[in-house]
Amino acid sequence: MFNKDRQLATPRVTYAIGDIHGCSELLKILLEKIHEDAHERGNDYRLIFLGDIIDRGPDSRGAMELVYQALREAPENRLLLGNHDEFLLRILACTNESEAVLSHWHKKVGGEQTIISYGLLGNQHPVFLAEEFENHHCHHVQMLKSADNMIIENDYVFVHAGIRPNVPLVDQKEKDLRWIRQEFLDHTEHHEKSLCTGIRLQTISIQKFGIIELL
What we know:
Blueprint: E1 5-8, E2 13-17, H1 24-41, E3 45-49, H2 60-73, E4 78-79, H3 83-92, H4 98-108, H5 111-117, H6 126-136, H7 138-145, E5 150-153, E6 156-159, H8 174-179, H9 182-185, E7 194-197, H10 206-209, E8 211-214
Parallel strand pairs: 1-5, 2-3, 2-8, 3-4, 6-7
Antiparallel strand pairs: 5-6
């Protein structure tokens, strides 16, 4: 199991990959380009997936499998849980809210494409989906359950959505790390550390910091 707020050292280049949203073919190309780039630079490297692996795109299942294989092949690779990924976990938990979450997820935020990619469009009830994922895709569910909320690497912090301004990193709430929007985006003052998020990426010099962020 992963530590939810993991402190990492920086012995190599880090490639941070933003929202994938079911685009498995583009992710496959990107992973190949990353490997080529690191080889040309002569660097070892690791990957940090910034969350939102699923929804909207045509192949969430394939995207999940690519991320799963990347985490298996290199223990230093990491995954952050995105708000779309959280939707799926809340549905599969089969709690009192699961049906309402499923309806919103399916109609409003691209969940239908995810269900189609797993071949489960015929029955859209949380219990049915939970059974299907448990029987056939439990490794994908466990991967999301084991995902980090925040990764701190020296002077950098990796999160999915952002952080609440003027709140210490140790006091940040998981909900904000995955869901915060305007309060974070509108903040113009310096944060405790430099931020790498899946919502708004800016290229950072590899020569200076050893980090490359990729959409």
